[in-house]
């Protein structure tokens, strides 16, 4: 069973946090570190074409342009996270930790998006949705990441 557990996921702290709530960043990082090891982390600003590439699967959806504009509007913090409990799947655990996509639903739960999200697009955090997505997204932001060396 443990072979089906994903050890790593790709998380992003989105621009709304860094633009509007940067004073909360330290406590957000502390909260994340209660449950996850931050294996890799950087702060960057995506170009529009990089944001388009990252969210290519959403191309054509009604919120795509808004999402790309938002994600390239300010700094983001992509991170490779690993659950501190090695028996727990990092992808599932991080998605539970951030909560539902829509801020209104997230606010009903104890989760990062509930605490810091503003709206459906400005929802503060990203998490990979599957093992393959995590591998691709980690490669996108951290091309030199080598999980065998971790
Ligand atoms: N109905 C919507 N209206 C506006 N923005 C949306 C909507 N649905 C999703 N988004 C934005 O697009 C992002 C990607 O959508 P997706 O459906 O993959 O949600 P998610 O898996 O919860 O989020 P993420 O991929 O960022 O972890 C969301 O995090 C949000 O910022």
UniProtKB/TrEMBL annotation:
Q: Where is the Nucleoside diphosphate kinase-like domain?
A: 6-149
Q: Which InterPro entries match?
A: NDK-like_dom, NDK-like_dom_sf, Nucleoside_diP_kinase
* Active site annotation, chain numbering: 126 (pros-phosphohistidine intermediate)
**Which Pfam families does this UniProt record tie to the protein?**
NDK (PF00334)
**Which keywords does UniProt give here?**
ATP-binding, Kinase, Nucleotide-binding, Transferase
Entry GO MF terms: ATP binding; nucleoside diphosphate kinase activity
Please name the SUPFAM superfamilies in this protein's record. Answer: Nucleoside diphosphate kinase, NDK (SSF54919)
Keyword Cell inner membrane, does the record have it?
Answer: no
In Swiss-Prot or TrEMBL terms, this protein is called Nucleoside diphosphate kinase-like domain-containing protein
């Amino acid at each position: 069973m443990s072979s089906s557990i994903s050890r790593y996921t790709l998380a992003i702290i989105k621009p709304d946090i860094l633009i509007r709530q940067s004073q909360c960043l330290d406590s957000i990082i502390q909260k994340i570190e209660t449950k996850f090891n931050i294996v890799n982390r950087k702060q960057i600003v995506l170009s529009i074409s990089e944001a388009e590439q990252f969210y290519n699967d959403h191309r054509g959806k009604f919120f795509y342009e808004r999402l790309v504009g938002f994600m390239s509007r300010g700094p983001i913090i992509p991170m490779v996270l690993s659950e501190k409990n090695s028996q727990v799947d990092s992808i599932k655990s991080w998605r539970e930790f951030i909560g539902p996509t829509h801020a209104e639903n997230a606010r009903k739960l104890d989760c990062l998006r509930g605490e810091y999200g503003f709206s459906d697009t400005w929802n503060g955090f990203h998490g990979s949705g599957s093992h393959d997505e995590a591998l691709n997204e980690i490669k996108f932001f951290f091309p030199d990441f080598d999980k065998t060396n971790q």
